[in-house]
């Protein structure tokens, strides 16, 4: 999958040029270019917004872990930001690792629960309020469909599939929105 992704990125606009060349009507050529540009714009906006959100999450988690007395708070912030790119699974792994290290660091169970609970609260606020508010205007997708796409692509390709699930779903929705016979599917995929 990574090799295929590399070759697709390395080829640039080659496939778009070939598609425009083989399409018979000018109307179809314009539609293909419009779909490609809309896809580039939406995926770029999605990835840059998610990256900024994850950087912010990493900073907040790092500060919170420093206040909670955890060793290496910068490490926890960077780890939280990177793992948050993997939907659902990343935060679960982060919470588990944080709980184990917290239990090994602090002798008291109540004190050891502070760091994981603080992370859980921060992650819930990010996942339920910050990310939907910032991404809601950019690319409107049905949350149930997103969850199903994450399960399917995660099953098919593992972590790489989970990372690509939302962009693939967004691309499919853009296609459906721009192709008249597929418009009902695009409506189903949206909110």
Can you summarize this structure?
This protein is mainly α and 191 residues long.
Quaternary structure annotation: single chain
User: Helical element count?
Assistant: 9
Largest sheet: none
The strand count comes to 0
Distance between the ends: 30 Å
Report strand %.
Answer: under 5%
Q: SS-based structural class? A: mainly alpha
Q: What's the alpha carbon Rg, rounded to whole Å?
A: 20 Å
Helix and strand run? HHHHHHHHH
Regions with pLDDT < 50 over 5+ consecutive residues? none
Q: Helical proportion?
A: over 70%
Would you tell me the overall average pLDDT? 86
Q: What gross morphology would you assign?
A: elongated
Name some characteristics of this structure:
single chain, 191 residues, mainly alpha, 9 helices, elongated
Question: What this model shows, in words?
Answer:
With 191 residues, this protein is mainly alpha-helical. It starts with a helix and ends with a helix. Helix 7 crosses helix 8 and helix 8 (159-178) crosses helix 9 (183-189). It is elongated, with a radius of gyration of 20 Å. Helices cover 83% and strands 0% of the residues. The mean pLDDT is 86. The longest helix is centred in the first third of the chain and has 42 residues, at 26-67. The chain contains nine helices and no strands.
Which helices and strands, and how do they pair?
Elements: H1 2-11, H2 14-22, H3 26-67, H4 73-83, H5 89-105, H6 109-135, H7 143-157, H8 159-178, H9 183-189
Helix pairs in contact: 2-3, 3-4, 3-6, 3-8, 4-5, 5-6, 7-8, 8-9
